[in-house]
Amino acid sequence: MDDAKLNVILDRHDRDPSALLAILMDIQKEENYLPREDLGRVSERIGVPMSRIYSLATFFSAFSLKPRGKHICTVCMGTACHVRGAPKLVEQIGRDFDVKAGETTADMKLTLETVNCVGACALGPLVILDGEYHGNITPTKLERVMKNLKKEQG
Amino acid sequence: MEPPDDKTVRFQINGRSHEGTRGESLLAAIRRHGYEVPSLCYHEAVSPYGACRLCLVEVKRGRRQKLTTSCNYPLQEGIEVFLDTDRVVRHRRTILQLLLAMAPEAEELRSLAAEYGVEDTPFVTDEEHADNACILCGLCNRVCNEVVGAHAIAFAGRGLHKRMESPYDDVAEACIGCGACVFVCPTSCIGIEETEQMRRILKWHRDLPMQKCAACGRPFAPTFQIMHFADKIGVERSHFDRCPDCR
Amino acid sequence: MAKRLQSTKELLSLQEKIGASRDPEQKVVSVCAGTGCCAYGAKKLAEAFASSIEGHGLEGEVALRLTGCHGFCERGPLVVIHPEGTFYQRVQLDDVDEIIEKSVQAGEVIERLLYADAGGKTYEHEKDVPFYKNQQRILLANNGLIDPTRIEDYLAIGGYRALAKVLDEMEPEEVCAAVKASGLRGRGGGGFPAGVKWESCRAAHSPDGVRYVICNADEGDPGAFMDRSLMEGNPHLVIEGMIIGAYAIGMPGKPKGYVYIRNEYPLAVERLGIALEQAREMGLLGEKILGSELDFDIRINKGGGAFVCGESTALMASIEGEVGEPRAKHIHTVESGLHDLPTNLNNVETWANVPLIIDRGVDWFTSIGTGDVSDNPWGGSKGTKIFALVGKVNNTGLVEVPMGATLRHIIYEIGGGIIGGKKFKAVQTGGPSGGCIPEEKLDLEVDFDRLTEVGSMMGSGGMIVMDESTCMVDIAGYFLHFLADESCGKCVTCREGLKQLCIIIDRIREGKGREGDLTLLQDLGETIAEASLCALGQTAPNPLRSTLKYFREEYEEHIRNKKCRAGVCKALIRYSIDAEKCTGCLICARKCPQECISGEKKKPHVIDQDKCIKCGVCMDVCKYDAVCVE
Question: For a FRET experiment, which of C258, C262, C320, C523 has its CA 20 to 30 Å from that of C228?
Fold first, then answer.
């Protein structure tokens, strides 16, 4: 992240160490993940030890320390989705794209993530592809949802 | 006998009356009066954390009697403390078994467990981490933050993936090599090596050149550590040119 | 609209003005824009309505309104035509013009889009549909009527009237007393009497008068979304509750407000942000609220995706910018919470009840619910509770019932029974730390104390229905893994204890369970419950213990007979094809990732058991129910 941009984020939060969580969220929103080098500058500029930043960034599952894929597919693992077969969907995407939950494909096209309930339980099982919700997913429907991605991957 | 000031409180341990200071760690008070309660994550120099759960006691306050860890329980007037009740002993044994499954090779842990009659664990030991005796008590971290002020290490991750490490499990740039963490670690899992030229803190991947005494030539502490302390207490760095013996 | 109101009088006259300007005969097409309906495409639907209204030259005559969640998410997208109140469900883009022409213009009812029950009977009005008719909606009452992004809509239905009443007529102590007398108990799970908490926080010493008023909107329980729905559908109700709380707890002094909200709820964050901004513009937040002495504002803090942050001390640590680790609560947060100052934390639904209690009175509130709270706030459970009814039930959605409604009423009368007429097995209440309640307890009257008695809890109000195809060992394992993953990992009993419970239950699921495992689970569960540091650990063994209590034979079958009667545990089942039912359509063979299904077209297929990975795709895609589990 360029320096000016980072400073805008820091200033937005008054360089307040207690706003660290919000600062990290803003960085991730821009960069799609938390680059190590950016965190180093945050540490220097708001006077928070790197160890504490690292601790926060690894504690909350919203953050990723590794670059994520161009597309992000999130499978809801809430209870309602679980009893309606969500684990099978994770397996299916895993097989089709050769990726494990929490990881990114080698070509950086797709990151597969799981989330513990997005509160859309009536639609379970549910898959969110790049922010768009797809409900009542079956294996066939999932194939349709992921079709374009599959093509893109070639 | 002097009248008790408002900081002094009276309380009971196993039915016997004692005095202590309001708000102090109950564990510290219990030990001061000569009773034994095991613990692995407590050290009087740093704030209590309540992670290892071994210092369980039962505390009766008013009509309610409950199980609690004593390290982080602030001493209060009139409480009745019971050590080694059946409930305490039963849970403590299970906790020791859980700890043994974490660090089956740790000598200190094995002998502590043996003291409480636990020789073995019914739980599955983690083969992958068998060589890592860290029980995540967090003492190293608290000493580094609260006593040394270096903030070199921290817990990373959460739940099953929690671990104590330097940022990115890479060289701990902020580590001054003082070795306080090594000293307080209850399972000796951090590791320190020292040669004429270098002190090495293994777990934090940190190598630090040693300062030689300007007088006798003996290496006595890492240069970085000396600078850190000189700055912290506000004396000239040259004050530490010589080792404590030659100063 | 952005004029700051200077007094309660100005507020009330503005309300009157808005009310008078509203034509009750106004034609309105209201489209549900909750997360559920949006996922079904409600946004596009609304756009289509907008252009259809325009295309038919009806602008100015017919209004389009995007509302909050109606709660009947199963049937989305939902559309209601006012003033008739015609209720259409599963509305598609193709239906839009027809609705405008027939329903809005000609006043006809489109039969096809009405809700029909299992017997085929249709219902024209929302209030007559059994799902709604059997509820008592007081908190959710206005979700479907107002546009949550317009404060005028909230004012039009009497919003902020309770705040005016409090500022005009009541001392802070009286407000605390009213909340205490109402018997309102915390809806976040603990069921602690809110008024008692308020009074303690009010009485606690604060050196410079700062007291924190926090709304816990970190609704982390999987299978619960009532808080999300309230924030999305009626955010001002929650905000009004908090302002009243700030006055009652913090005055005279300097109350400060926070909402700690899940990052996974983007729509709720957005709507709440808009609502706060509007409230500020109108002088309902900020300095000298409605001309009174009350200075109060609310900040939004987004959570980073950690279930444990729903725990009060972890939540406060997180607001301070620290890792969300709980601390021991030997000193209560009402005395020393956020930044070591007195802090009152209630959850979304609790706050939402406050304006209603003030507006309609304590007697009205205590007339709903169970028990007697006249001289003991723990003496019963008053008011309503919203449940998220999900799982293997026909009508999934948000259900608001008076405390004391039976499980049977909720699941059968409102929920319409089990999907596909299967057999009910259990209902799990209270989120991951709750318990599974078996069939023989279906007549249980649901309130805080009854649920605890049967080994479960209210929690935030998740209610997950399970049928015979749900394996109770698997479900206990699901919750244990969830909690092990979400544990902060600070204390040994919770972190290592849950890890070991997972290891043991996994080997039972894999058919490698040993004699003695059940005792080991039981004993370890007890240690975790008694010796863990925070409520997450202390309640974590609940799903295990309740399933062990009520469904022990399923565990024993897994261990001794290597059998999973629900056909869920992979290691204990095999898929096969019923030659009688198989039509040889080839679909399963094509979809099988292992390519291990063979057979010619129009002839029965066979699964090669050696290659089968038991992914279940064949069973899911078969249209003839020919794939079965043994």
Answer: C320
